[in-house]
Amino acid sequence: MGEVKQGKIEIAHVSREIPPQEKLFVPGIVEGLGATVRHFFKNVFGGKDKYTQTIEYPDVKVEYPHRFRGMHRLVPREDGAPRCVACFMCQTACPARCIHIVAGETEDHNIEKFPVVFEIDELRCVVCGLCVEACPCDAIRMDSGFHPKPVYSRDDADFGKSDLLAVLGRDEAKSGGVRDKTAPPATAAGTGRVDRADGDGGAGGAAGGYEHAH
To answer: For residue 106, which of 5, 9, 118, 179 sits 20 to 30 Å off, Cα-Cα?
Structure first.
């Protein structure tokens, strides 16, 4: 066996001379106070050029952008029943597992199934919009334009089928509660996808993520 020679490890000590002004922290304190004073006077006398804008909430509320994914809602048919056919696509696609559906049979052979129970736990929801994308019949949207309200208990954050049906879309609320009765596309695999270059309109929007047929 050959001899193993161990190399000598040398440690180089690098000295760093700290200037006296840094030891006193004077420059840092002066710079910080200067930023504070600058922000103070600009916020007081800056007018529209202020660093911060105060909103007199709740009398004045900020309007969310059109791309905002708001509170979930179920889209009703003309008879008031939800468009949902209990296919479990949204429940399967949900990464937070906050959607719970119980399916039941119906006498309508065009529908086959309907949701006996449709619940969403808004506290667990991560607002990803995958449920809207997965829905084949435009039954669920996130275009309400507002976020779920604060609750005192976790049970109050569970929204059932009747609660979700009562929520109006942003455009429907502006039109005085008139429901959008445009027929949904046949399937999610259809050719009616909207170009998402400018956003998804709230993960669905007024068109539900599709272009309506004329």
So the answer is: 179
